[in-house]
Amino acid sequence: MKTARSLLAFLLVSLAASAAAQDWPSKPVKIIVPFPPGQATDTLARLVAEKLTTALGQPFIIDNRPGAGGVLGTEVAKNSAPDGYTLVMAPISSFAINVALQPKLPYDPLKDFAPIANIGLTPQVIMANPKAGITSIKDLVAKAKAKPGELFFASSGNGSASHLAMESLQLAAGIKLTHVPFKGNSDAFAQVMGGQIPIISDAVPGAVPQVKGGKLVALGVASLQRSPYLPDVPTVAEQGYPGFEVVGWIGIAAPAKVPAPILDRLNAEIRKALEQPDVKEKLTAASFVTAGGSRAEFTEFIRAEIARWTKVVKEANVKTD
């Protein structure tokens, strides 16, 4: 009898969820962006919101909630009702790197959220000041081994993707560099372009203008294939470090317990959107490569990324500010 009651309860809950999903969306949907307007996460959020608004017939509204490196907005999303009317952008920083860096993070990306879809990918590019006499990863490693700890690199902050990219290279190559963190990319780039610090890493969108403008030299792209935006720049893997990869990503998620039919519908519509020529064009303009894939694939991808960055942070003894 108990088993029968449990089965009946399960069926009733399933039917209720299915009915709710059929009516969804019946009002505007909010997409929380845990970063300020104008940043890459915001750009991709607005691109997706526009397409979902058209496809699903209700406004998808951007709600920027910056603060604490993405933690603030992500926590707001975690505490939202799991009804499909609040979504959150899920970039590498708040859904993987923060987990590795912050033991007391107020959310768990895989327990408190349901990943929906990965949207765009962009690898790191390791660069040098043209006057540094470094034109390849081989040059960088040779100089670092000749004078351990005497070669400096700038980053946009402790625990940033640009910082962890260089820590990953040090671990892979067995070298020791000295890290100089700044409060954001602008100051870090200014120091490297001014010649005070020789090395920096940044994602493709930030790297391309500096490299194509001749202000910095690209030493290597941290993806397994060459970037279509810097096709003449070899990957780090090509230069003696097989499998070396540091790729940023931006996806979208919902609070845990949102009905699966809603999540499936969102995934399907986002994947359709990513195949549309105008979306591809806008992603290209932002120097991103289209991601896509199923909900399960994105979930496992996040799991693997958390494991990867937890290992790097531990082995490199990375500390936040």
TrEMBL record:
Question: According to the entry, what is the taxonomic lineage of the organism?
Answer: Bacteria, Pseudomonadati, Pseudomonadota, Betaproteobacteria, Nitrosomonadales
Question: Which key words are in the record?
Answer: Signal
- InterPro entries per the record? BUG, Bug_dom1
Position of the signal peptide: 1-21
* Family assignment from sequence similarity: Belongs to the UPF0065 (bug) family.
Record protein name field: Tripartite-type tricarboxylate transporter receptor subunit TctC
